[in-house]
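RECORD TYPE: inverse folding
INPUT: structure tokens
STRUCTURE:
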């Protein structure tokens, strides 16, 4: 039976003011998972007002106390991990083992950011004049708007909300339209952890109405968005009209480089996992395989053989390797790119069509070879289970191909040559670089984000996440008892008055 859920505004569970609702659909069975509010600008306005009212008491709550609440969030997430993971498989389709990992990232982030309640590190530095002290402190910003995607419906909201909260901000959160029930259940964790009313608010609804209303509300001081490059840049331009601080995490066209000396079996396993985990619906998914010519024939044959054996199905079955795409629109997009690839002259090795299933948005695992670096399937983000194999002659050529896209999120190289590995670390122009591992699997204690069209230079996770949700405040304490003028009274310091 489908669940009926509500928005969380000012600590109260409420329907959309219009009374409108929308359905959340299981992409494996096409059954209704939940009926959720189809909110609009009036709901956003109410949520922002609640967040603004809660802001000053929350920012004055000592940071260690704020951190303790985040520890409770982590404990509740741990208790609800399996229930949230099963709901995730039902609502967006990833297989159950991956869904558990998604929730685990949020657990890890809750405990990590809870610890920041006793750090939130600023710094001191020497000052120019005697009897004077200087320091730099992090300060909260105000109400922040979080707009998140469906592919990591618990992990990504945690990357944004937890640093925002520990820094003393209040939150208005819009989950993706494909995973609204998970967004509400994530908010329920904060509610049940006894976060003060109004500090965390969740609004479900379409991006066009809810997302735009958040971006255009002058009381929202920070926008953190993860999603498509097109929407992200449009949002960025709109937010600039108000001088808002904006963090964008956008698309990727990630590549694994395999050199002739690579550990062959390890490379095969990593490529399959990175290309087809989450059905290729990760911003860090491997969609290009750049292979040195000596190893290419053997590797191509092995990948095609293994890919054909991957099991497609409903992810609650632990034997399933690959789940559905998130909706029918995504399946049509993937298929259109497969047709483009064939039209460009790439050779289809396996897959290439919707899976033969009665229900669900399944697509066969697909591999192309004989792909040229400038083909559209090698340049544009497909966001599905499609891998393009590109041959190269040298390390330098591989790195050039890797860097020659509009995106710069994650890259990887398989080699047993330490010199080649360190050259790759130096020259791969992506925000994340892996050696002898696939392109996916980031950890929460390190910065996450990329270069070029992957974002706007901000980073999520690690201590760098705090940069989005804080402002720096420089503080000077002069205890000399007289007026001292920095950069002017330097002669006095030298005894040359």
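DESIGNED SEQUENCE:
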């Amino acid at each position: 039976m489908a669940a009926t859920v509500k928005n969380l505004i000012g600590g109260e569970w409420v329907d959309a003011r219009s009374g409108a609702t929308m359905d959340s659909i299981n992409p494996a069975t096409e059954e209704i998972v939940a009926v959720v509010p189809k909110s609009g600008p009036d709901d956003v306005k109410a949520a922002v007002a609640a967040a603004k009212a809660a802001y000053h008491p929350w920012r004055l709550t000592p940071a260690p106390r704020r951190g303790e609440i985040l520890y409770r969030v982590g404990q509740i997430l741990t208790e609800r991990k399996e229930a949230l993971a099963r709901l995730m498989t039902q609502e967006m389709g990833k297989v159950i083992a991956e869904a558990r990992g998604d929730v685990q990232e949020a657990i890890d982030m809750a405990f990590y950011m809870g610890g920041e309640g006793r750090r939130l590190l600023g710094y001191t530095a020497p000052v120019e004049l005697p009897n004077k002290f200087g320091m730099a402190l992090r300060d909260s910003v105000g109400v922040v708007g979080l707009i998140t995607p469906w592919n990591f419906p618990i992990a990504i909201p945690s990357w944004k909300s937890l640093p925002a909260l520990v820094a003393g901000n209040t939150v208005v959160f819009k989950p993706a339209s494909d995973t609204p029930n998970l967004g509400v259940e994530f908010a329920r964790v904060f509610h049940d952890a006894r976060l003060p009313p109004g500090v965390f608010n969740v609004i479900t609804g379409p991006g066009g109405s809810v997302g735009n209303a958040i971006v255009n509300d002058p009381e929202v001081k920070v926008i953190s968005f993860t999603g498509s490059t097109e929407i992200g840049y449009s949002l960025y331009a709109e937010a600039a009209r108000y001088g808002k601080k904006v963090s964008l995490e956008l698309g990727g066209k990630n590549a694994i480089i395999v050199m002739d000396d690579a550990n062959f079996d390890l490379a095969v396993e990593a490529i399959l996992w990175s290309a087809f985990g989450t059905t290729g619906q990760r911003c860090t998914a491997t969609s290009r395989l750049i292979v040195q010519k000596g190893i290419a024939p053997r590797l191509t044959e092995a990948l095609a053989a293994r890919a054909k054996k991957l099991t497609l199905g409903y992810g609650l079955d632990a034997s399933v390797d690959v789940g559905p795409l998130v909706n029918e629109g995504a399946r049509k997009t993937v298929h259109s790119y497969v047709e483009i690839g064939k039209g460009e002259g790439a050779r289809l090795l396996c897959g290439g069509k919707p899976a033969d299933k009665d229900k669900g948005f399944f697509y066969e695992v697909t591999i192309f070879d004989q792909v040229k670096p400038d083909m559209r399937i090698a340049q544009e983000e497909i966001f599905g289970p499609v891998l393009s194999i590109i041959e190269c002659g040298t390390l330098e050529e591989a790195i050039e191909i890797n860097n020659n896209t509009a995106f710069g999120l994650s890259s990887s190289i398989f080699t047993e040559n330490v010199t080649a590995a360190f050259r790759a670390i130096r020259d791969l122009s992506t925000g994340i670089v892996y050696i002898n591992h696939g392109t996916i699997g980031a950890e929460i204690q390190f910065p996450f984000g990329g270069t070029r069209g992957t974002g706007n230079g901000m980073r999520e996770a690690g201590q760098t996440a705090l940069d989005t949700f804080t402002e720096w405040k420089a503080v000077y304490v002069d205890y000399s008892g007289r007026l001292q003028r920095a950069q002017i009274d330097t002669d006095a310091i030298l005894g040359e008055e």
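NOTES: The mean pLDDT is 96.
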